[in-house]
Amino acid sequence: MEEIINLTKDLIRFKTMRSKPKEIERCTEFIEYYLKNCGVEYKRLDHQISPSILVVPQSGFAPILLMTHIDVVDAPDELFNPFEKDGKLYGRGSIDDKYAVALSLVLLNKHFKQLRKHGKSQDNLPFGILITSDEEIGGFNGAKKALQEIKTDFCIVLDGGSVEKIVVKEKGSARLKLVSRVKAARGARPWLCENAIEKLIDDYVKLRTYFMRSVPQHWHRSINIKSIHAGKSHHQVPGYAEAVLDIRYTETDNLEELINKMQQELQSKLMVEAVEPLFDEGPSLHLDLLLDISKNTSIGFQDGSNDAGFLSKYGIKGIIWGADGDQSQHSLTEHVNIESVYTLYRILNEFVKKITQVVLDRKPRFRSKIRNSNF
Asked: 258 FRET partner, CA 20 to 30 A, in 76, 116, 182, 212?
């Protein structure tokens, strides 16, 4: 168990922010070195300077896939010096998502050693792992690309929820840019022209009317201004202003229709920069098995978004699950509760052991047996 925490600390020390691609490369090479020492064969996938590491059975089919990521949001240098206090491990990426990378690597190493001890090979692995490096900026070069090459029945995205809550539904997200352009003029005569900032503000007020809804669980679409850029001179009425918007939408929203409808009411230009799909998982035997093993765990949903949204694109069943971090991800006090990491490991280990029996049986093959059994 301590190996997971020590390995998490090692991973936290890499400043794997998007602004530091060399650190992402160094962290990726560190993981490659770990796998080589384990004797595990892996595949490295590189798309647009976003490396991913994939380990699957030699047949190419992984009954179960554990998906995690090494990239983190920006943080000051001191957050990359991990430390333990009161049963918590602090540091950037501790809960999002480096504990999960460490956990999946240690679990893989453990089961691979057991297989070799019984004369089995990597082809008998009951699960595979996928580690990406661009989840925080949308996952378009990581999970979206890598999942094209993966054959699996069930994916556990270790990037959300908690030990007591398995997430089966998560909002999608869209990054939009609201751009206001007018003819700039001298600041001494504002009555002779329009002000791009004022025009932008007026349009944002109109946009908010599409998002002012409230229910107890907050399962509704939302909007947030991420940044504003405008004005270059104290002596001019600004002719340009832009705002980057973060929209979260649910399965009841038609995003394209919503954007088109909003644009009709605006003077400013509304541009779509990126859209991440929502995640909405249905029932599965794998989920039933997990709930049977983890008696105190229930299913639920969360507001965030992550790489799980790409699963449905490739017809892969899955869930979002993870350790407990007291909702501290991306904060200056980001941490993971160590005991919850151990609990999650024990549950996943038991889950994989049960799947192993099915995989090693091979009579009939896993796919048909999983669909016809009640475990």
From this structure: 182
pLDDT for residue 191 = 58
Query: In terms of domains, do 200 and 333 share one?
Result: no
- Rounded to an integer, what distance in angstroms lies between the CA atom of residue 167 and that of residue 25? 31
Do residues 338 and 4 lie in contact, with contact meaning Cβ atoms separated by under 8 Å? Answer: no
Q: Do 142 and 214 belong to one domain?
A: no
Q: Residue 114: which residues within 8 A CB-CB, separation 6 or more?
A: none
C-alpha 196/C-alpha 230 separation (Å) is 8
Model pLDDT for residues 190-225, shown as the tens digit of each residue: 655 689 999 999 999 999 999 977 777 788 999 999
Band of pLDDT at residue 359, cut at 50, 70 and 90? low
Kindly tell me if the per-residue pLDDT of 304 is higher than 80: no
Prediction pTM value: 0.85
What tokens were used for 238? 């600004």
Residues contacting 168, CB < 8 A, separation 6+: 280, 281, 287, 299, 300, 301, 319, 320
Residues 130 and 10 in one domain: yes
Q: For 216-250, write each residue's pLDDT tens digit.
A: 778 899 999 999 998 777 667 888 999 999 999 99
Residues contacting 97, CB < 8 A, separation 6+ = 68, 69, 70, 135, 158, 159, 322
Domain region containing 82 = 2-170+278-372
CATH number at residue 340: 3.40.630.10
d(C-alpha 15, C-alpha 27), whole Å: 9
Closest CA to 10 of 25, 31, 36: 31
Whether 61 and 362 have beta carbons less than 8 Å apart is answered as no
Q: Which pair of tokens denotes residue 60? A: 């190419």
Q: Cα separation of 292 and 37, whole Å?
A: 35
Is-contact 299 332, C-beta < 8 A? Answer: no
Task: Report whether 207 contacts 266 (CB < 8 A).
Answer: yes
- For residue 88, give both structure tokens: 């918590």
Q: How far is the C-alpha of 45 from the C-alpha of 117, rounded, in Å?
A: 30
CA distance 193 to 367: 68
Q: Are residues 286 and 140 in the same domain?
A: yes
